[in-house]
Write a structure and sequence with these properties.
This protein is mainly β and 118 residues long. 5% of the residues lie in helices and 53% in strands. The protein contains one helix and eleven strands; from the N terminus they run βββαββββββββ.
């Protein structure tokens, strides 16, 4: 089992920035897995925001391209999401994820609230 602990959410004005962090409890799985961020707004389905493979390949939702940047530090078992130029429509609970097709596992963090005021 892997625990993912998120931090960095909060309230910010439109146009502002936030940085989310997610630390994994097990380094081996983190080092070989794909780490990502999803979000879920009230009344909507959870959607992928961005993810990054162990090899560094990234994938972004069209709605955040050019504004959000995902990165990871394998030495710290941590994945980050730098969010710039935030918009009210970015308001959601953001969830960290860690998955491995080799190990056929998928883990979720507990979620952190991001609220962008207009």
């Amino acid at each position: 089992q892997v625990q993912l602990v998120e931090s960095g959410g909060g309230l910010v004005q439109a146009g502002g920035s936030l940085r989310l962090s997610c630390a994994a409890s097990r380094s081996l799985i983190f080092s070989i897995g794909t780490a990502g961020w999803y979000r879920q707004a009230p009344g909507k389905q959870r959607e992928l925001v961005a993810d990054m493979t162990s090899g560094g390949r990234t994938n972004y939702a069209d709605s955040v391209k050019g504004r959000f940047t995902i990165s990871r530090d394998n030495a710290k078992n941590t994945v980050y999401l730098q969010m710039n130029s935030l918009k009210p429509e970015d308001t959601a609970v953001y969830y960290c994820s860690l998955s491995s097709s080799v190990l056929t596992v998928f883990y979720w963090g507990q979620g952190t609230q991001v609220t962008v005021s207009s």
